[in-house]
Amino acid sequence: MSPISPERQNYRSAIVGTGAVATAHARAIAASGGRASLVAVADMDLTRAKDFAGVWNVPRAHASLTELLREEQVDLVHLCTPPRLHAPQAVECLEAGVTVLLEKPPALSLAEFDMLVKAERRSGAYVATVLQHRFGAGALRLRRLARADALGRPLLATCATHWYRDEAYYSVPWRGTWRSEGGGPTMGHGIHQFDLLLSVLGPWREVTAVAARRARDVDTEDVSMALVTFDQGAVATVVNSVVSPRQASELRFDYEHATVEVRHLYGYTDDDWTVTPAPGHEGVPDLWSREPGGAPSGHESWFTAVLDALDRGQAPPVTSEDARRTMEFIAALYASAFTGERVRSGQITADSPFGRTMEGTGAPWEKVRTT
């Protein structure tokens, strides 16, 4: 199939993997106002695929991505499968000339992600990662005001994902393993919050981190913490946890002229943001309130941005370049945590230990377990 034409106004979409997150994608397609249509689904459990198709009035269900690509004419494939399948299935879509919208994490390693980028360049189609917190009205407003220098210089930020996942959550075989999930809360949970942090503060320079397995019987970490410096001078702390009974997702940005905060759990609205001006800058909250409000973070806001980009003939967000910066940050965090060293941007290459796998030279607790 040829790449999507910018003149096309309706995009034939398919969902592969009909688990829980697939519902968010189906809702986003249904809410697109006719700009996209869900024409097929696939799941290795064909019965589950058919059940999902019945709920969403989808004409056809398939037992595999390969079968779907062979028998359907689609413009977009929404990949909602387990993480270990993301990169190989995305490559399969790209080789068929189909743009792929990929749930996080987009790959299990930098090396695997770079393989995906090469496939995208050969294809002419696109790959975009679902990191939906970038697209709520509050995040858009914050980035606009920061670019306009209305907030002054960014000085300090804190980013915390305090979530709780019990042992039953990890009874799913692919969860909590390096081989199938690629990492713990750093890879699969906190990525939403610190990707938003990176989208606001720009390129990061250095990472100093720790990671630990404190409470869950898994291969990966269940908590990590990092100190991050950015090219423009700001410093930030990043916490990722799945052992926190009082769950919260929080970001705080301290600028010269104001503190901007958002507190939520799995998605924010305009009401979740607060602005506190510094003395002498009492007008900043008024600037904030004048900016357009509206859409919460979520798959619908993200999908609207995807369709807008495709209509313009552009790569949909989050682009492979955007996603690689976030993936490199994850690799650097693990590398710092497991080696005890400060890691600089660009230091982790695709052929280095932490480029080949997020576990790199091995988690410290695994060494204890095997000695």
Distance between the termini: 53 Å
CATH superfamily of the largest domain: Dihydrodipicolinate Reductase, domain 2
Radius of gyration over all CA atoms, rounded: 21 Å
How are strands sequenced across the largest beta sheet?
13-12-11-7-10-9-8-14
Strand content: 15-25%
Which architecture name of the largest domain does CATH use? 2-Layer Sandwich
For the record, the count of structural domains works out to 2
Write down the secondary-structure element order: EHEHEHEHEHEHEHHEEEEEEHHHEHH
Instruction: Provide mean pLDDT, rounded.
Output: 95
Number of DSSP strand runs: 14
Structural class: alpha/beta
- Which parts are unreliable, with pLDDT below 50 for 5 consecutive residues or more? none
Largest sheet: 8 strands, mixed
- The dominant shape is globular
User: Which CATH first-tier class of the largest domain would you pick?
Assistant: Alpha Beta
* CATH level-3 fold name of the largest domain: Dihydrodipicolinate Reductase, domain 2
> How many H/I helices?
13
Structural key phrases:
single chain; 371 residues; alpha/beta; Rossmann fold; Dihydrodipicolinate Reductase, domain 2; 2 domains; 8-stranded mixed beta sheet; 6-stranded parallel beta sheet; 13 helices; 24% strand
Could you give a short description of this structure?
The protein has helices at residues 20-30, 46-55, 65-71, 83-95, 110-123, 137-147, 185-188, 191-201, 284-290, 299-311, 320-339, 353-356, 364-370; strands spanning 11-16, 36-42, 60-62, 76-79, 99-102, 127-129, 154-164, 204-212, 223-230, 235-241, 243-255, 258-264, 273-277, 343-344. The protein is of the alpha/beta class and 371 residues long.
